[in-house]
Amino acid sequence: MRKLVLLISITALVWGLTSGQETPSLRDLATERGLFVGAAIQSEYLNESDYAETVAREFNMIATEWETKMDAIHISKGVFDFNRTDRMVNFAEENGMAVRGHTLIWHRQFPTWLDPNDYDRDEAIALMRDYIYTVVGRYQGRIQYWDVVNEAITDNGTFRTTPWYRMIGEEYVDLAFQFAHEADPDAVLFYNDFAAEAMNMKSDTIYNMVAGMLERGVPIHGVGLQAHLTLGTTRTGSNAAVDEVIENMTRLGELGLEVHITELDVKFSRGSDPRRQELQAVDYQNMFEACLAVDACTTIVTWGVTDKYTWIRSDQGIEDAAPLLFDENYQPKPAYFAVVDVLQNGS
Ligand code: G3I
C-alpha cells in the first residue's frame, strides 16, 4: 500500500514539476507541520545560484557545517573572523530561515594556536568563557539554536579525553552551557552526538548525563542526534533501528528536552545498484516518521544540500558518495520523494 502511495506522490510531484504547477517544497510541507527541515551549508557555495536557490526553496533552517567551529572563527588568541558565519546568517535572515550554530566546544577543528599545556584550569575556563561570550553574544537573537558541546562521550560511554576535558575536567560541559546561556538567554542549547540515536550504552550515558545536568540546573534545552547512517541501519535490530530511535527520543522528551536530528545522511556509493537508492529512501522515510511520532522531535537537518558537496566525498574520500536528498545536479532523489510522502501523508 505504501509503495502505491509513494508512487502516486512521485507521479503527482513529477507532473507538478513538469507542468510548472506550484508543487509544495519540503519547506512548505515542513512549515505546515510546524517542523524545521534544514540543511548544513557552507558559505562558499552560496555564490552558486543552484545551491542558494535549493536551500532557500526546500529548507526553513540552515546549520553551519564547519565555518562556525572554533579554529575557523577564533583564528588566534583574542582574534575572531566572523565573515563566513555572517554570510550564512545573513542568507538565513534574507530567506526567513532559522539557524543552528554548529558547534562551540568540540575536539576537532580545535585551534592550533591553543596549546592546552599553556593553560591552567582557571585560565582555560576564562578562555572558554571569553570565546563563548564573544561568538554567542555576536549572534544573539540571530542564531536561535546552538550545539554547545559536540561528541563529549565515547562509544563505550566514557568521557572523551578532549583538550577541554584535559584542561578543565568533566565540568567543562556544564560551564559551556552556562556561558552560552549567559551570552544569549533566549538561545536554545543542545548537546550533540553520533551513534546515539537508538538504545545503547552511549545513548544511555548521554541520557544520564543530560538528566544530571537538568538536576544541577544547567541550562540545557535539547539533545541532537546526528544520524549519520548507512543503508539499512534504521531496520529493526540495526544500530539506528527506528523503533529504538523512537524510544530514545521519547525518553529524552520525558526529561522536558527538545530532540533534533541534526546531521542526517545515509551513506552509499552512487555507482552501486540503483535499487539501493530505494533502500536509502526507506531510511530517510523511517527517520522522518520517527521524528513525527515523537512530540519532542521538532527538527531534522540533513548534513549537506547536494551529493556534490557531501563531507563523505571531501572528508572520507568516497568520490561517488550519494548520501543526501539532492544529487550532484540538484535533482531530487527517491529519498526526497519519500520524505515528501511522509510530510504529506504521514501520521
Ligand atoms: O573548503 C575549505 C577551504 O576553503 C579552506 O581554505 C580550508 C582551510 O582549512 O578548509 C576547507 O574546509 C574544510 C571543510 O570541511 C570543507 O571541506 C575544512 O578544512 C574541514 O575541517 C571541514 O571538515 C568538516 C569536519 O566536520 C571537521 O570539522 C566537514 O565539512 C563537516 O561536514 C564535518 O562535520 C562533522 C560534524 O561537525 C560533527 N559530526 C560529524 C560530522 C562529519 O565528520
Describe this structure in words.
This protein has 347 residues and is α/β, with parallel strands linked by helices. The protein is 43% helix and 15% strand. The radius of gyration is 20 Å and the shape is globular. The model is unreliable at 1-6 and 15-19 (pLDDT under 50). The structure holds ligand G3I.
In short:
With 347 residues, the chain is an alpha/beta fold. 43% of the residues lie in helices and 15% in strands.
Question: Helices and strands in order, then pairings?
Answer:
Elements lengths: L1 H18 L6 H7 L3 E6 L7 H10 L2 E4 L5 H4 L9 H12 L3 E8 L15 H18 L6 E6 L12 H6 L3 H12 L4 E6 L7 H15 L6 E4 L2 E3 L11 H13 L3 E10 L7 H19 L3 E6 L8 H4 L19 H12 L2
Parallel strand pairs: 1-2, 1-9, 2-3, 3-4, 4-5, 5-6, 6-8, 7-8, 8-9
The site of ligand G3I has 13 residues, from helix 12.
Total helix count?
A: 13
Average predicted confidence as pLDDT: 93
Instruction: Return Rg in Å.
Output: 20 Å
Bound molecules: ligand G3I
Helix content range of the residues, please?
Answer: 40-55%
Structural class: alpha/beta
Q: Write the element-wise H/E pattern from the N-terminal end onward.
A: HHEHEHHEHEHHEHEEHEHEHH
Largest sheet: 8 strands, parallel, barrel
Determine the strand fraction and express it as a percent band: 15-25%
Q: What is the general shape?
A: globular
Terminal-residue CA separation:
15 Å
- Kindly state the number of beta strands: 9
The unreliable regions are 1-6, 15-19
**Numbering strands along the chain, what is their spatial order in the largest sheet?**
1-2-3-4-5-6-8-9
